Amino acid sequence: MNRIECLEGVRFNYVEMQGKDVTETYVAWMNDPLITRYMESGGGETIGSVRKFVNGLFYNDDAYLFAIIDKENKQHLGNIKIYCSNFFHQRGEVGIMIGNRSYWGKGVATEAIKIITYFGFDVMKLKKISAGCHANNYGSIRAFQKSGYEIEGVLRKNNYFEGGRVDGVVLGVLPD
Hints:
Layout: E1 6-8, E2 12-16, H1 24-30, H2 47-58, E3 63-70, E4 76-86, E5 91-98, H3 108-122, E6 128-134, H4 138-146, E7 150-161, E8 164-173
Helix pairs in contact: 3-4
């Protein structure tokens, strides 16, 4: 699949990332316990480890990682990724991280999810896109629902969270 340089949203641009784009700020996000609270990674990351992760996605023809860039001030706010999780069934998965906390609760995730979902259906030709999150990550669930995703299931005590277990929520959307 051809690589995509940039997708354009209403308030934000989405620029495909390569390892060379990884900054100290991005690495700091990955080491911030508040930002990575609901993520399956975080802590102990280095420029090298984050570049390796980003390059792994960039050189995978069925995965895309986009930096979310504020159109006004050109600031990198976070990332959104999409990848084909099952070729036979043409299913994809989305993950998002808003690293710049000053943008939390301002609709960044909702716009990004809508843009990447359209990209998944239109460019990647996926037939279904899913996302998963902790049941207590209300902001993420709300952003996906505002973007047309529906809760499809709850996985009981599926996720480790702050020393205990919490339910996982699976959300999905179809092209229609």
